[in-house]
Amino acid sequence: MKVRIFVLPGVLLIGAFYCGFFQQKEVEKPNLIVVFSDQHSYDMLGCYGNDQIRTPNFDQLASEGIRFEHCISSTPVCSPYRGMLLSGMHPLYNGVLANDIRMLPGNGNHFAEILSAAGYQTGYFGKWHLYGGDRERPIPSGPYRYGFDGTFLSNNCTLLYDSLRSYFWNEAGEKVLYGDWEYNAQTDQALEFLDRNAVGAKPVALFLSWHAPHDWMAGGIGRHKYAAAPEFEEMYDTASITLRENCEDTQLRRLYYQGHMASISSIDRDFGRIMRKLEEKGILGNSLIVFTSDHGDMLESHDWPYNKGRPEIESIRVPLIMKWEGRLSQRESGLLMGTLDLMPTILGLMQLPVPATCQGQDHSEAILAGKDDAASSVPLFYFAGDWRGVYTRDYTYSFSLPDGKAEPHAIRMGFPDYNVLYDHRADRFELNNLYGKKEAAEVQKVLHEMTLEWMRKFKDNGVPYSDLLPRAMVEEDFRVYNTAPGDRGSNWEGRMKGQPVEYQ
Questions:
Q1: Are 430 and 422 in contact (CB under 8 A)?
Q2: What is the DSSP letter of 399?
Q3: Would strands 23-28 and 317-318 be described as parallel, antiparallel, or unpaired?
Q4: pLDDT digits (tens, 9 = 90+) for 266-313
Q5: Which one, 286, 312, 322, 351, has least CB within 10 Å?
Q6: Sign (positive/negative) of CA torsion 73, 77, 78, 83?
Q7: Rounded to whole angstroms, how far apart are CA atoms 431 and 420?
Q8: What contacts 174, CB < 8 A, 6 or more positions away?
Q9: Spatial CA neighbour of 151 closest among 129, 165, 168
Q10: Dihedral class, residue 79 (left if φ above 0, else alpha if ψ from -120 to 50, else beta)
Q11: E runs forming strands in 156-303
Q12: Cα angle: 236, vertex 240, 243; to 5 degrees
């Protein structure tokens, strides 16, 4: 894992250099460990102020690294987030406008392609959800692994997490039962990868994508939609659980919180196993460790039953903790970090080239210098919901497109639109929507213009999703995608013709 750099000394260089000879200097590349959970709001960790959840390993990471107060999922839905994380590109450019749409190839510019070109041994474990189309199939090797050419073990996307039914696809394309709870087994695979590769000639880049604490098909074994192994559920007494102030207290919701928090405690234990393995292999000190999540979970706050996809804080704000011994000083950071900023910032911290295709900001210098004011806003956009917005330290703002169509299920069930304006300083739980109110008119005007500026930056013309998707998606795939999810079957691919920005 060491690169040798040869330095040619000049005539008058001082001390250790001497004229006429080459001198060797060894520079060690850092390992990269990226661990991300699924549907995990910022407020569901002890280190973010939740005193009823048990997350000692994540809390220790925060006590030794940088805990970011404002990490925002620009599109709080699974596939679009993953597309942005692994490409550094806006959905109009990487193709992933919504779940189950295939990301366009990277042509050498996607995250793992940069890492592979820099000599990293890559490993990816867990949920993928970027191949598009039918979820129950393996990801073939080649361009649709986007540079993860090393070890790649995934179940693509499944909602079965228990020890009886959870599975992955092996390299032969065979479905293999884990024989354990999904996230435990995925952690085992990651540990095996570190055992094989952590002391090799190449540095490692490990990406571990747990599906927990996402809700799942627990009903098949007589459980509600949030559940974890009994030993973790027993850690939480439903009678003593406190719900968010914007969530009506019911017994069912207490059970949801119990299962959700239990699964977080479970992955916390698994995260501790990863950290101990890094220490055991002797590479903890030279590893950049990143923990985050793709989006939050509403947990029925505001009576919204679909977990995500909204601009409320529980949906868009996620944990972000970074640790790198001797390189990143322990602190809490107020720097605004959006999804598009993650790839360029991580590459910047590692002193690797940031491709010109990245559309976020490289905040590595700001992080190292402690400049938390390097960004003033983060863009928000959800194409399938036809809304756009912006997040600042003080406000969240979003609006439904003038001619847009909200998600069909929202209309059918009478849920609100996406016109919101919340003041974080005075209204932590976003109980007072200021959108359209006279007293907030000037603030709304400023935030609206800020949103339009972000749209102009990405050449987002605000075309309704129902118009954009049939133009941009391969026709035969659109015919299937346009049917109800339960009727799609397996004969479809979720392919785009090209970058959606060209089909507006």
A1: yes
A2: E
A3: unpaired
A4: 999 999 999 999 999 999 999 999 999 999 999 999 998 889 999 999
A5: 351
A6: negative
A7: 11
A8: none
A9: 168
A10: alpha
A11: 167-169, 175-177, 204-209, 287-293
A12: 95
